[in-house]
């Protein structure tokens, strides 16, 4: 809208007393100038609930720990201080639980919140082979994306019917051990089946002498890989990641390549080339804290142009064929390298064989392994 026409329409409207039209024209003018695309008002309730589910999830990821600490301190410095003190004592006694199989609650994994969250994108879980409930499996998941949206929906909740897809199996999602040091927040992660990313934790979960039918979902690239997450790009960190191979060999647990197609497309992080000042800051911050400082740029509640809500872009998490691993309590570097090379080949094969089903411009999509 030409600004001269806009001013003229405002003056005419004011003279006629039509203030509401002035406001409407003003918003249209501002939106056009700023390039803001507003969401329609007549959105079905189901989609509103889905947006609310996704908003709650990203708020949990971004602010959950800080809010938990604030709540804990508020209780500690109140007349209910004894409750916070009792919780702290119990937490100290419970500190090893994330390394000993966790403490999951199915009713938390069954919350309708997670179903709305998964329907928002939507997220789908696809299997390409059956799993044997008499074994334990190590799911090596790629890519990390900004916040592992697909892996969370598929393996940390029951919203995608994991139990029906893989009968007789239960799943644990692995995350940084530091998250389990945050009061209150740790209990939610544990309830969702989360466990620590320590070797002790992985060896415990995959030990056939203690239990069977376990699927342990590990985001191999971790926080470092999140820095390479950009829409349409599939760059994963695998070449220097061999610890998970060694764990699989020590336990004899089959390795399963898992790939989430569409994961990089739900956020639009700032461009951060490897030699840029922003990237150097991010890398240094990650080295000190284990967390990659990324602003998850997506959309807002009432407009689609900017905000921290993820974009409505489909994610399909494909579980590949298990790779049988011979148990070896003390594998040599050469043996680890051989298994690593075979797993890398299988991951590339999974990406190439499945990308045409779940990516629009699949011919121009390649998997970059660093």
- Tell me the number of structural domains: 2
Distance between the termini: 48 Å
Q: Describe the sheet with the most strands.
A: 7 strands, mixed
Instruction: Please give the share of residues in helix.
Output: 40-55%
Mean pLDDT: 90
Counted beta strands: 9
What is the N-to-C succession of helices and strands?
HHHHHHEEHHEHEHEHEHEHEHE
Strand content: 5-15%
Strand order of the largest sheet: 1-8-7-2-5-3-4
Low-confidence segments, ≥5 residues, pLDDT <50?
none
Please state the CA-atom Rg, rounded to the nearest Å.
24 Å
Helix/strand/pairing class, anyone?
alpha/beta
Per the principal axes of the C-alpha atoms, what is the gross shape?
A: globular
Number of helices: 14
Give the key terms.
endoplasmic reticulum; transmembrane helix; diacylglycerol O-acyltransferase activity; 7-stranded mixed β-sheet; alpha/beta; lipid biosynthesis; two-stranded parallel ribbon
